[in-house]
Structure formats: structure tokens, C-alpha cells
Amino acid sequence: MSFKNLGLSSELLKAIEEKGYQKPSPIQEKAIPPILSGRDLLASAQTGTGKTAGFALPILNILQNKPKRKGIKALVLSPTRELSAQIYDNFKAYSTGLSLKSAVIFGGVKQGPQVDKIKSGLDILIATPGRLLDLYYQGELTLDKVEVLVLDEADRMLDMGFYQDIQKILRILPKERQNLLFSATFNTEIRRLANKILKDPLTVEVAPQNTAAETVRQVYYRVDKPDKASALLHLIGSMGGEQVLVFCRTKHGASRLSKKLEKKSFTSAAIHGDKSQQQRLKALAGFKSGAIQVLVATDIAARGLDIPLLPYVVNFEMPNVPADYVHRIGRTGRAGSEGEAFSLVAEDEQAYVQAIGKLLKKAVKLKTLQGFEPKQQEAGVEQREVKTNKPSPKPKPKSKPKGRGGAPKAKAHSRPGSNSPSGGRKKGPSKGGQKNKNTAVGNRRSR
Question: Which of 82, 124, 168, 248 could form a disulfide with 253 if both were Cys (CB 3.0 to 4.6 A apart)?
């Protein structure tokens, strides 16, 4: 199927062509027609499947065909500043050639410029719940003309404690409106929220819940906690200067790790809740432009961060919420491209890995990274499988090793670590960090 078969206007089809889209993704193919027909929608899709276009395109098409009148007619709520900004960028790109105005508002920055945009007249507003309510109670905006409401990453909004804010916003909005709820998961809380706001919704699910994209190759390495930083340096050093997104569990840990990478000649930046909005936007802009090779983040960036053809994600620390793992690695392997996700697993994090395996409904194999074998590892045991249905039995000692550990075997294109020396512990990359291009991984940006 092509976009021409979905009922979109010629102006939107032109914008789609300029964006380089060839054909609609599964979520776009299933979501756009019912939204155009006015149906409420409950949609679940893996991150990176193009769901923003799945609701932005039909909303623009609907508003384009309606008589012009003052007031915000479409409201999109999202959990984070980063995601809100990227949704706005998509609306702006798709609406080229249309007489529709959009804006984005979020906290962490001065509200003056945002208020000025609202006062100038808007058709579409993308907002985080907190800043939206602040400006509403200050009398800086009205929501009595809203015809379409979108809750994007609804499960994340609930995780972040926005339930009460959402309820307040729902009471402010007109009763008669079209409601679109997008969520990575359909848990009990999401279904309860959906039952409250959706009227006779069409349910769209293009992939099983909590599943990782098939285009993402996942590798788990057992590494002692004190050796994690050196193991990360080794992995990044073998990536040939390609960009990598690294996840930490804590804000302090992310900042500390980014500074370590800088000392080893890697261009790096950290984003987390303690950073100002300007600092976060600057770091994201640097990463998107390629000026920053390694972006270190907490889970605040696990959703909404859209870097085209990002080749690598590394879990420096494992998330204690299994679903967050899916969202983290979903930053790579987007829109059908290939990606790799590496996880450095300490002994006290193996329970997290077991929970991830249960969520994904698959056994997770823990490997050893050559030169970084755990000190407590039993002699001869280089790989262990974490069961998903019952506790793993302790591996029996064997007289001989199964084989040599190390980074994964190279396929058509080389993998990180595949060109590593066979002996000795490697504590970090060669001098020059990302400048060393003679490494195992080729440049993927040609894909």
C-alpha cells in the first residue's frame, strides 16, 4: 500500500515525499484511515515505528478541510520535553504548504516566548501536562475549541505521575471530541484510562506488547561492576567512530560517566533531569548533528529520542523496570534499519536480566567479553542462559572451557570487538577515541 491509498491530501503527500517516506509503516497503515473517519483510537506500537506520523498526518488532513476559526483545535500531550519537541518538529515538517499553525510548550524554559506563540493564534498545540495546566490557570490559553486530543506515550505519562494532571485536563476539554491514545504497552492502568476517555474505540496493535524490534541485535555481557567503564571504552573504541547512546540508572552516574569518556578523547554529553532545558537541547542537537559521538542518558531519553540510523545502544546499567529496557533499545533499529544493543550486566543485575527475559518471553544468554571476564566466574564457564520461567540452576564446573569469549562474530558488516586482540585485558580505546576509523565496524551512514 502507498500513502496515496490512505486518503491524504495532495499537500500532505508532497510533504511525505519530501521527507523521503516510501510507503506507510504498519501503524500508519492501520491508524490513518480510522482517524480520518473520526474514530477514537487505542493504539500500541513498538517505538520507532513511525506512530507520530500515524496521528499527525490525519490530524493535519482533518483540520485542513475544516473552515478556519480561532482557537486550538488539536491538543497533543506527551510526557517529556524531548518528545514534545520532536512531535512538534514532525507537525511542522508535514504542514509545509498548509495554512495551519502549531507550537510546543513545556517546562524548564521561560514561558514568555511560548505565551507569545499562543497569543498569535494556533491550530495545534503539543504540550507536557504540567506546563499546559500552568498556562491555563494563568489565563494564557483556552481549550474550549479542542476537537482532537492525543495522548502520546500514555503509559509513560502514568509512570511519571501525570494521572491527576491528565484528569484535570480532561475536565477542561469539550466533552465532544475525538480521542487518540497511543501507548507502548496496554497494562491495566492504560486500559482503565482508555475506558474513561475513549468512545467505541478501534484497537490497533501492530506488534505484541513489550517486544523488541526484530532489527535490533541484542547482546548481554557479564562484567564485574568495577570493570564496566573499561569495558564500555573497549566497545565504543571498536565502533569506528559511530554514534552510541549509553544508558545509566542515575543522574549522577550519567554525568560521571560522560566526564570519563571526555577524558578518553570521546566527544560526549549527558542528559538527565538535573540538566536545564537549554543544556539538554544543546546536547541533543550536538548528538543529532554528529558533533557528539556518545550521549549518556537516564531513562528520561528512553522515549521520544529519534536519531535516524543510530547504530548502537549500550546499557551501562540495567534498568530495574523490564519495560524500560524495551524502550531503551528501541532507540536503534528504527523504521526497519538495523541496530545493535549491548548490555553490561553485573552480578547483582542478573535478576533484572531474568525479568527482561520473562517480559520478552525468551531465554537470555549471558556472554563474556574477551579481556573482561568476571573474576568470580567459575573456571571454564563462559556463557550462561538465564531462564524465563524458573530460577536458573547453577552451572556445573567443566574441565575445559567451551571456547574463547569475546565480542560477537562479525556478519556482513563488522561488529564491535570483532577485531580485538586475542590476549590481554583491554582497558580502553586507542588514543584519539572516535578519531580512529581503522576499527572493526564500518561506516553505517551509507545505508
Answer: 248
Residue entry with cell 532545558: 277
DSSP state of 202: E
Angle at which helices 81-94 and 51-64 pack, to 10 degrees? 50
What are residue 366's DSSP bridge partners? Answer: 220, 384
Evaluate whether 257 touches 218 at the Cβ level (below 8 Å).
Answer: no
The DSSP letter of residue 135 is H
Residues facing 367 on adjacent strands: 221
Tell me the residue length of the chain. 447
Q: What is the pTM of this model?
A: 0.65
Contact 26, 167 (CB under 8 A): no
Helix, strand, coil percentages (3-state) for the chain, rounded to 5, are 40, 15, 45
| Chain segment 8-58, per-residue pLDDT in tens | 999 999 999 988 888 898 899 999 999 999 999 999 876 667 889 999 999
Q: What is the CATH number of domain 216-438?
A: 3.40.50.300
What distance in Å separates the CA atoms of residue 131 and residue 108, rounded to the nearest whole number?
A: 9
